[in-house]
Amino acid sequence: MSVAPPHPPKLETKNLRVSYGSLAALEPVSLAVRQHEVFSLIGPSGCGKSTFLRALNRMNDVIPQSRQEGQVLLDGQPTASLDVVDLRRRVGMVFQKSNPFPKTVFENVAYGLRIGGIREKSVLAEKVEKSLRQAALWGEVKDRLGHSALSLSHGQQQRLCIARALAVEPEVVLMDEPASALDPIATAKIEELLHSLKAQYTIVIVTHNMQQAARVSDRTAFFYLGALVEVGPTEQIFTNPVEKRTEDYVTGKFG
After folding, report:
1. pLDDT tens string 90-141
2. What Cα–Cα distance (Å) separates residue 183 from each residue in 68, 112, 156, 161?
3. What is the DSSP letter of 83?
4. Are the beta carbons of 91 and 57 closer than 8 angstroms?
5. Radius of gyration of the CA atoms of the chain, in A
6. Cα 228 versus chain centre, distance
7. Rounded to an integer, what distance in angstroms lies between the CA atom of residue 160 and that of residue 240?
8. What is the largest CA-CA distance in the chain?
9. For the domain 11-250, what is the CATH superfamily, name and number?
């Protein structure tokens, strides 16, 4: 009986190291993120999670004195060799604090499409609606597309930012604690969204919320003091970790 070869990773890091001036923020990290999975990064504050996340689409490039060594590969191709604008279209990002533009709901979602050269109103309307539906927001804002995005609730604003990221049809979506500032109801909506989106996208999420990581992710990586301690299926990380430091963290002995 023949066994199908494993899918190559969507994203992969090889000995990825990041430093800011003389400060080593991330010790060499090698791991792979598979296509169509939700991959969580957990660990205490300052452990390197967000630095690792930002390295995946070269967001650290804009930080003064940052230096990156090793490789990040997207579909096997080094991201250092890609046009950075194209890379960030393919690998979108949603930040911890919702950051809608001071424009209408419609124009927030259409922003990246217009930058990409789409001008036809019917095409813009179709893509905006599709993205808002994917972000589970269409029903709430379809009659408010001409209103300011700043008039939406915090939870709606965060889903709007997700819709904005999805509008340019990325392959990977990076999320840096997307629900940390939200109430439990809005958080639940974001988590439901993650389950539905992974059929089309690869998602990497930083979260401080252990329960959230356990609920939404297929695999989890635990970072501590700038180093990758352990990576594996989420259930294993939370119920049968290999490393004592992982067990101490997920059971609340430190954090």
Report:
1. 999 999 888 999 999 999 999 999 998 999 999 999 999 999 999 999 999 9
2. 36, 28, 11, 17
3. -
4. yes
5. 19
6. 18
7. 37
8. 59
9. P-loop containing nucleotide triphosphate hydrolases (3.40.50.300)
pTM of the full structure: 0.93
How far, in Å, CA of 111 to CA of 210, rounded?
Answer: 34
The continuous run of DSSP H or E covering 223 comes out as: strand 219-224
Angstrom distance (rounded) from CA 105 to CA 135: 13
Spans of all domains in the chain: 11-250
Residue linked to tokens 């990581």? 213
Burial of 109 (0-12, 13-18, 19+ CB in 10 A): buried
Both tokens assigned to 125? 């309307």
Tokens linked to 23: 């400060």
Q: Is the pLDDT of residue 166 over 90?
A: yes
Tokens of 20: 């800011």
Starting at the earlier edge strand, list the strands of the sheet with 66-74.
23-33, 11-20, 66-74, 77-78
